[in-house]
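Budget justification, computational time. The allocation requested in the original proposal was used primarily to generate structure tokens for proteins on the priority list. As evidence of use, we reproduce two of the resulting records. The first is shown immediately below.
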Amino acid sequence: MKRTLALFSLGLGIALFNPLPIAVSQVTPQPAAPPSQVTPALKLVDIGTNCKPARACLGWDEQLFLGHGSLKRDRQSLLKSIDNSLSYLNTPKAIAAYNNYPIKEITIDRVRRSLKRFRQLVATAKSPTQLQASVKREFAFYKSVGDDNQGRVKFTAYYAPIYQASRTRTAQYKYPIYRLPADFEQWPKPHPTRVELEGVNGLLGNKSRLNGLEMFWLRDRFQAYMIHIQGSAKLNLTDGTQTSVGFVRGTDYPWTSVGRLLFQDGKLSKEELNMPGIIRYFQKNPKSMDNYLPRWERFIFFKETKGEPATGSISVPLVPERSIATDKSIMPPGALAVINATFPYPERGKKLVQRRVSRFVLDQDTGSAIKGPGRVDYFLGYGDLAGDRAGITVTTGSIYYLLLK
């Protein structure tokens, strides 16, 4: 989502470890990737062909064919995501990115041919076993070296919330989100901080230099803040219509985790470091938002997208559970990958259970908190269920990029 935002479970501090395209970040920050890496981010590996049982092996993506619980099979979603990446690869932006890509054998032509062949396999496969076998036979696997040079990758998740909002300020709807100032490119650095732009309580109003640039008003300050973290949102308006907003630009400040700050100050225990815990804390202590929210100094500007889907940093729509965000300075944009990790899935009712999955995804986004080969942010979709899942997603696993041999 061109996320000025940080990951949903990451940004708020849900992760003990770290939208933008969401707001739960690590308690123990990871070191930033060095500006020029000595070791390539991806390493060609032999995954073998004798893994049994098949469902426990890399590339067993049963949701394409069977679905799971309340989640329907999503073969069409994967095909759509592949098509989105293919569209991107035909742009000058993609050509420029791959001209500078550090791993020389990973070229734009090879990525394009790989996506086209994989699309054929997905469209014609009769079972997860058949697709898995075809991919292992025809594709080379490039594994991320991870944050430990052994392939360990930290996964978080993000989503696009759905909120009630108003086009005009009222006594109930009083927390604004803003469009980009026309003179933003001329703003001197350091940029104004969040406090300078919206005030300690988020209600600076006509005293703000952003006065007149308000787009929509939210009822809840934390909801407005979450839109900054996520980078996009769908809005149900008071006049009965629906629309959406998406990230345009952000001021030049790093990510700061509210959840980490709450934990460090003893406001939350380790067990409470999740999105529900953070929300409960602010509901019980609303004035604390004046202390904690402004400490993420970056400020995000939006545009109205009129119901269009959330868009990634490569300017294509994000597809729930098929799009990921990585560090685009080292990972191949638009490319096909398979992730292997544990994520929360809905079972009966609203219960979420952890399930190990191996899913095919497309690398279509980035985020200010997603740095280095050991970080992946997973797009889970829209609304409350996606938010509940994203809010507790902090896990380790592995990621492999797939290219035709």
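The second record produced under the same allocation is shown here.
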Amino acid sequence: MRRNGLRAAVATACLAVAMSTAPTGTAEAAPGDDPGALTAITSSSELSKLRLVEHRVPTASLDNLTNEMGTSRGIDQVLASANHMMRNTASCYSTETAALPVEPSAESSYCWDTGDAVTQDWLPQSVTSSGDADDDGVWGTNKVILSGWGQNEATTTDHMGRIAFIDANDPGNFRYRWVLPVVPLGGGTDYRALKTHLGGMVWYQDKLIVTSWQKDSDDNMLYVFDMKRILQTTVSSPAIGKVTGGWSAGGYQYVMPAIGSYSLAGGACNPTNDDSLPCFGSISLDRSSVPDSLVATEWFSSGGTQPARIWRYDFGSDPGYLATDGSGHVNASQAYETKAVGLQGVLSHSATSGGTPNFYVDDARGGVGRHGILWRQNTGGAKAAADCGQDITYACWGQHTESMSYWSSTGRLWTLTEWAADSSGHWTGTDSAIPQRTLFSVPLSSVDGSLS
């Protein structure tokens, strides 16, 4: 997940939300070092930096846009029109399967269609699923995985995001359709593309929450979408919004208009140090907390030593929205500092409902062919996989993995790898690039069993 100019500055580094902060000046950890235990953040002044303000798009504006464009479409309609095939492991390139974790091994893995596997203009960043949306893991009659991709700022300037709706009903036949997230304008008379790197997504009940982009004009950290409010375009053109003859989305058939957002109460985020307002990197859902909660982290380069914060917000009684106080603020219910570096994803899970959580954080180390480190941290310490024969003995996780999602009804952790590079490890704009992008799952029990 990543942000301002990282790819432009480091061609082989992962794009991410450059952000972060920490509440205290603790000792720094070098890349690959044992990060030790999480440190709880209890200072009211530090917790206030995590406070959010909720904004909702007026229902009248959303209804006007729906009436203008036509009846809302359902997820089943989007899946029925899926026009991209995912490749099963046997059809993946060797470079793609090499990006999978060494230990624990992937239980299932998929590769994107050939165009998406090598494009340099779009980067896979996040994952969530119907396993997040409902505890039975099914949305209606469908098993669905969503994958968020952001534009590569080294090759494009629009900073848009797009979401792959994956039909996951048949494990041997994953198919997907792209949907464009947009922001309504003018009381629902128009819309614009959402500027987002989609570093994190959480599908909870009938809402989808995604991380935003520092360059988005509204300074919002999170945007909210209604999974029952998907609209179909009527004109296929490069334009996005209302056009002569109807509605267009840059060639995409479906759009999702934002129904709300969250900004930091203290102002715009600052990615330069760990004492500022945090920019959001990855987010995930924790169904083992009481109540269910959204977990967030910020990102600093895996080549640095900057600690980062991990924090959570509780969900409220209004389905899919975060809990607010009497002033309309969303307050972090828990926050920690971690010395693990380069965090691309975060997952929180407790073995018992409401129990002490373990936090799983992935250090996606820069460099082609370098496996990352998946740490399990809590307030007692940190663990990683045992010796798996890599350059760092416990660098056993996937190569440049991104956000993570836990499908609670199956016990599977899902994540995805990002890179596509040429034989020298450089980013290219040609189809000669070597794909290393995968979507895979691992039983969380296997992760725990591999830890030294």
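A brief technical remark on that second record: The radius of gyration is 20 Å.
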